[in-house]
Amino acid sequence: MNDKPETQLGRRSLLLGAAAGAGALVLGTSALPRALAAAAPAAPAATTFFKAVDISWAPQMQAHGYSWKNASGQSQDLLTILKGYGISAVRLRTFVNPSGDPANGHCSIAEVAAFAKKIKDAGMSIMLDYMFGDTWNSVGVQNPPGAWKNMSYSQMLSAMNSYVNQSMNVMKSNDVLPTWVQIGNEINSGICHPVGSVSNPGQMTGLLNAAYNQVKQVSPSTTVCIHLAQPQKYDSMQTFFSRYSGNGGKWDMSVFSSYGSASLAGGIVGNMKKISDAYHKPFMQTEFGGPVSKVSATESALVAYLKALKSNGGQGLFYWEPECMSPFTGYGNGAWNSSTRQPTAIMDGFKQV
């Protein structure tokens, strides 16, 4: 299983390709310690399973005239439509000093808090995703914010403490403290390169622990998550977690991205469970998607992942940007029809599990 690639391209590659394409808006390893694995019980089975989404683009889509219709063709509030599919949680990304580009910027903590109020009012839980950059960071790219680029480790540690504390307090002052926080996005290779690279595990751990501690200082009950991509590559996950844990890394839950096909879901989720059990953490999948042009295949993949996660004790699945439409973005792994502005049958997958 581990040597099989997922069938979809990485999200960042698709986003960058979309940004360059016509029609897009020009706007913006060491082995696991066996003694450790035997010393504590496996992660507990989930008591609640969350069907969820990341819809961070939605505010800027609305600002540029986009709206959404339900499956019956009636215009309706996006959150109301999503709740009709059983969606009970929303992930929102935040950039440090973002540009004004609608598709690749915004998502400042103030904007996130404003949208989070609407999500909370809709009775949905919130996940905050720290990108620790001014724009996209993902498995292939982990650039620090521009203001941190030339900092030493000690300077960056101070900046991390201040930034996470201040941003969490913005969420607190708006009464939208998140249920979960991701400290970094797809951080297989670490964060804020080169200072916090996985090849500098002590510094990487120091930065992430600073983020962990500041989240907990403001919101002790928030679940702090480590987010990795490509869980089909077990050795890559093992390298990260062995170095992070070995340097005293702190986290409450392991979360993963996977954009694989239905046939790969069982093995990929099995890897998520295996690595999470090894470190005695619960887990969930915080990114999923598939081609909106292949509705049946993507719906089948969604169902397969949901079933595999539930049967393995996973705590939920987040669909990444299902509400997106062109020409706001050329990203092709949403779940809405850009012509009709209605959800495709992909979304029905949430009702099948």
TrEMBL record:
Provide the species name: Kutzneria kofuensis
Question: Which processes are annotated in GO (biological process)?
Answer: pectin catabolic process
Q: Quote any Pfam family the record assigns.
A: Glyco_hydro_53
Q: What is this protein called?
A: Arabinogalactan endo-beta-1,4-galactanase
Q: What is the lineage of its organism?
A: Bacteria, Bacillati, Actinomycetota, Actinomycetes, Pseudonocardiales
> Keywords, A to Z?
Glycosidase, Hydrolase
What is its EC class?
A: hydrolase
Chain segments annotated as transmembrane: none
Q: A GO molecular-function term, please?
A: glucosidase activity
EC numbers on record: 3.2.1.89
Catalytic activity line of the entry: The enzyme specifically hydrolyzes (1->4)-beta-D-galactosidic linkages in type I arabinogalactans
Query: Organism's domain of life?
Result: Bacteria
Family the entry assigns:
Belongs to the glycosyl hydrolase 53 family.
Entry keyword Hydrolase: yes
